[in-house]
Amino acid sequence: MAKTSLTARLETLPFTKKHTKLLGVTGIGWALDAMDVGLISFIMAALTKQWALSPTETSWLGSIGFLGMALGATVGGLLADRFGRRYIFAATLLIYGLATGASALAGSLAVLMVFRFIVGLGLGAELPVASTLMSEFSPRAIRGRVVVILEAFWALGWILAALIGTFVVPNPNGWRWALAIGVIPALYSLIIRWGTPESVRFLESKGRIDEAERVVAEFESSAALSTRTHANETNRDNAPEAPANDTQEAASIWSAPLRKRTLALCTVWFCINLSYYGAFIWIPSLLSAQGFSLVKSFAFTLIMTLAQLPGYAVAAYLIEKWGRRATLAVFLAGSAGAAVCYGLSHSDFFIILSGCFLSFFNLGAWGALYAISPEVFPTRLRGTGTGTAAGLGRIASILAPLIVPPLISFGGTGVLFAVFAAAFLLAAVTTFALPEKRGKSL
Hints:
Elements (H helix, E strand, L loop, with lengths): L5 H6 L5 H34 L4 H29 L1 H19 L5 H29 L5 H25 L6 H7 L3 H12 L4 H6 L3 H14 L5 H6 L12 H4 L6 H25 L2 H7 L4 H13 L1 H11 L5 H21 L3 H25 L6 H52 L12
Helix pairs in contact: 2-3, 2-5, 2-6, 2-8, 2-14, 3-4, 3-5, 3-19, 4-5, 4-8, 5-6, 5-19, 6-15, 6-16, 6-18, 13-18, 13-19, 14-15, 15-18, 16-18, 17-18, 17-19
Pfam family, one: Sugar_tr
Organism: Rothia dentocariosa (strain ATCC 17931 / CDC X599 / XDIA)
Protein name: Transporter, major facilitator family protein
């Protein structure tokens, strides 16, 4: 009788209550991350007035966290491949939760920037690790859709950030109370540590077969399947089944079999980070600079943020219909068109309308990107590869807030959003250099 690997058993299961619980646990962590990233855009606008910050100081307040994210994403991926997805996921939530809470006590820009850098370290490491963990547990037939749904929790976090930004931040010391809420992830990390299973693929790759068997048995039990026959068929002495190809044998993500896809993925990450963070971190401040009141600027941003949810929903549906590459490319192209329209908008109606379309397409693209990223690399390099792409992409998120003031001075919002549109288009074209893994085993 042919032997069945543990991962093969896991991939063929239906979506069970255990999957739902895992999606909820990782998704809440994801939403808390998004809340923190979203809050800084509102806090930047508030502190620009309260602390009389210059455009350069405001830019660095936005960029310093992304500098930490770039380092955190790269190191977090390496650590996840060595120590496991679950432990690193919990540790990153703890780090950035405590640092966010502490930043509420900052009495100067320098102190606030130090804490924002530490926040970035934890946040940057968490996102690729969480998507890798969820991808490795998901049923093969709906893996991409599940990861897009995970990414949709980002919209919930941003909506929460927009609500806090609109109703809390404008009050006296409101920005401090907003940051104090960030301590919640530190407490939530305890749930992550004790309530999340370790990746079966990771356990198998480390030879911890008995632990992997127990995890699979729990998921099979949730699906009301007997594990006895499967357990007898499982090969306890060999690595998990995998296609015999050059990518599985690659020594690193920069080896010849993986180099092209690594470069392509890094390019897509760079372009989407540049445009997303350049736009959405600055939109409240840009609206305020255009003469809108702080409250009205925040309200506009809240409305735009609500459009993220349908963007994720449509991407989640299409990703198993069209495939990863086509879905990602279409949403990136839509983002480019919306960016051009936003840059040319002047009335309240068209600013909100084009902003909603930008939010819809851009966040749908993010969902597809997080779905395809873990599928690009073999198991033993998956955390490293995804983390490296995210880390290099974060370089763009560091640059994005810094290039906004000079581009605005040079040509206004039209030129600024034309640059973002060009980056979206480059990412859309580069997407087709990535492998398509719809319906295929990792």
